[in-house]
Hints:
Layout: H1 6-18, H2 21-28, H3 32-46, E1 51-54, E2 57-60, H4 62-91, E3 99-105, H5 107-124, E4 128-134, H6 141-147, E5 153-158, E6 169-183, E7 195-197, H7 202-210, E8 220-222, H8 225-233, E9 239-242, E10 253-257, E11 264-271, H9 279-290
Amino acid sequence: MPELAPQELKVLVAVADSGGFSAAAAALGLTQSAVSHSVRATEGRIGAVLFERDRRGARPTPAGERAVAHARRVLRLLDVLVAETRAAARSGEGAPPAGPVRIAAFRSAALHLLPPALERLTRRHPEIEPEVRVVRELGAGTAGEVAAGRADLGIATLGGSAALPEGLVTGALTEEPYALVHPAGHPDPRTLPFLDWDENCGSYTRAWWGRQDWIPRATVRAEDDGMVLTMVERGLGMAIMPALSLHGAPESVAVTDLGPDRPTRTVGYVTTPELAAAGAVRALIRELRAGRTPAGA
């Protein structure tokens, strides 16, 4: 097996993140030739071309994407190794979790699901430093951020038509019912134009929608659920939205239950098997589970 040093892994990540050897060299405080030599040596040890080079820079090949994701995850584990070993040296076997925990969450989860869990987490473990990034739940979404090594834990939609990356650890946190959202007081909201947004999880609602002859094609497609809710408030249409998106909806917006066969989606956490054992990630999962309630409750 080839032996790769942490510095070589850092070079791979820097080239992928910056899009070129020169930018990676500047970020790492190295010369471009040193970065180029490091990448060539790593490719030789692994036996695969990791980057496509041209005048515009360097882009990971499919093999390079896999190598960079592993490199990020290995480097993160080295950080955890140092942090948890130092904590154990200071406090013994039961050392409290400490250090950063990187979280990727889609917008409504970041606004309404995470804050109470993070409040409890930082109160009980003040040495933990949460870092939250909002990621659109499109394509690879938050689970893709975890698989790529850019996040330790993702708040993701589970069980949809898009399969999660292989090998991740998941757990359900809440079941979100969808509801009809419309301007309050409208005599027949089902006659209004239909509003939708790119991130709406159609895989959860497609079968249900297929049975509803009153839902037209979307006349407006917005950037996110917050924009849809604002447009409904202004009387511009109606929408089908999940419960997390409806926290704090103004009184001018009415929420109507869609009945016992209403569509739902599952929201949960996603992490890697190795980070699932890290103290900070375990503590965060405990707090997320502690606040677990039906989203529509």
